Amino acid sequence: MITAFVLIEAEPDAIAELAPAIAEIDGVREAHSVAGGDTDLVAIVRVPSHEAIASVVTERIARLAGVKSTGTMIALRSYSTDQLDAGYEGFGD
Fold first, then answer.
1. DSSP string of 36-91?
2. How far apart are CA 4 and CA 8, in angstroms?
3. Which of 29, 71, 78, 84 has a CA 20 to 30 Å removed from the CA of 62?
């Protein structure tokens, strides 16, 4: 699976409606309203291919009313303390 972070600049009056709409798109795992810079929302996309990222971003997210622009960052490697902790679950009990 490929993880991507989609930075979304939105019309100010559309942010509250966009976040839940983005979260409902297939392939979007989370949508966050954020502060700072030109980014208003961040969507975390997890899909099986680069083509699927292109589809989610250009055919779904970017076409929503109120979206001004998007920028996509693709994760090269993912690290999680939850994954590390799960690997040691049951040891030392």
1. STT--EEEEEEESSHHHHHIIIIIIITTSTTEEEEEEEE-S----HHHHHHHTTTT
2. 13
3. 78
